[in-house]
Amino acid sequence: xxxxxxxxxTLSVQEGDSAVIKCTYSDSASNYFPWYKQELGxxxxxxxxxxxxxxxxxxxxxxVTLNKTAKHFSLHITETQPEDSAVYFCADARDMRFGAGxxxxxxx
Amino acid sequence: DTGVSxxxxxxxTKRGQNVTFRCDPISEHNRLYWYRQTLGQGPEFLTYFQNExxxxxxxxxxxxxxxxxxxxxxxxxxIQRTEQGDSAMYLCASSTGDNGYTFGSGxxxxxx
Lengths: 108, 112
What we know:
Largest sheet of chain A: 6 strands, mixed
Radius of gyration of chain A: 13 Å
Oligomer: heterodimer
Radius of gyration of chain B: 13 Å
Helix content of chain B: under 10%
Mean pLDDT of chain B: 93
Number of helices of chain B: 0
């Protein structure tokens, strides 16, 4: 089946630094890529998404970029805060597949 | 409408028993998905409904698993003859068209 690869699996940053999580996909027809944040013991929640007709989307401290040619997309979090600590998942919504997740730790 | 609702929240069952989980999606969402999540992993796709039609099933969904969405509203996921390897969080999600999912809180299954 189609795969979504996500890196890194863990990421530790100092409060105020930026964090970047990268994903690659394999289906050329894929056109919608959401990102989810999952805090410990809670459900995944949609935080931002991007469609294939744009290359970048920003929402306050969170941005997502998409490179369709290279089949990869990235999540960027700026000015990280301790409450950003969670597991983040990328997804290829057309193929309904998720990445394995990135555990982000923001150290105060 | 308070979002996607899943019942029960927790289920402990003995190996070999059958279990059934229920998901009530957001009422205006025509798409419903079942995923399984184990510790430290991303959600693994199990199956997907558009209205009452089951359009896709993962090969993870062995013949012990069956899902229904009889009237295009709530859905049930049944696991027959449970095995210890079935222990996981079973997540339901719903959406409209090609939009992000709203997940339920999940049903945590423990097979002893």
